[in-house]
Amino acid sequence: MSLAESWDRYAAGSKPRRTVNARGDATWLNWTQYPDHGPDESVLGPVAGRRVLELGSGSGSNLAHLVALGATGQGVDIAPARETVARERWGHLPGLEFCTAEATAFLNETDERFDVVLSIFGAVWFVDPDTLLPLIRSRMTAGGILAFSHLPPGSQGPKPVKAGLRHDRTPDEWGRILTGHGFSDVRVSLIDPPKGRAVGTMLVRALGA
Fold first, then answer.
1. What is d(CA 132, CA 27) in angstroms, rounded to the nearest whole number?
2. CB 96 within 8 A of CB 73
3. What is the 3 state secondary structure string of 103-135?
4. Per-residue pLDDT tens over the stretch 58-97
5. What SS3 state is found at 170?
6. Among 61, 120, 134, residue whose Cα is nearest residue 93
7. Residue 169 class from Cβ within 10 Å (0-12 exposed, 13-18 middle, 19+ buried)?
């Protein structure tokens, strides 16, 4: 079974995101693995008028929220089932596109540049950073923002069977890796889990130098 087929099988069995959050919002951004928890899109600064790329866009809900705030968005996911769901749910929004592709293949082939690149439990966690980060940096505008989240290193959480190796890194390691690949102002935070849960979330933000 190919990597794309493994991710597609995992995607087909995953639970769909709710249509509204606890506040009744139809769109919202969630960096963590828990609903209604953690920071919002303010991590990215103002997004209106900016071109946003999400690597591992899933059902498209996070990217759709940014587009609803005035961004234009390109979602990329390796699983065809994810693109299907994203188009069904968010295809009506102008300025929002989705495609099925492996992250490094997309970045190698596109000639677009992006002001914001994000990955929420997505490609940055599953692709060798020494391969992926230079490609991301090459497609970012000067001073653009890269932000991504995943489980803290060493924590135990769901891992799709045969879907690939997770590239867990400590905060210090992410700082060194990102700086080494031309990023600056690297900020890493550990978000505590909600009450009754044991595993938090790591959130990383950096600027294109």
1. 29
2. yes
3. HHHHHHHCCCCEEEEEEECCHHHHCCHHHHHHH
4. 999 999 999 999 999 999 999 998 999 999 999 999 999 9
5. coil
6. 61
7. buried
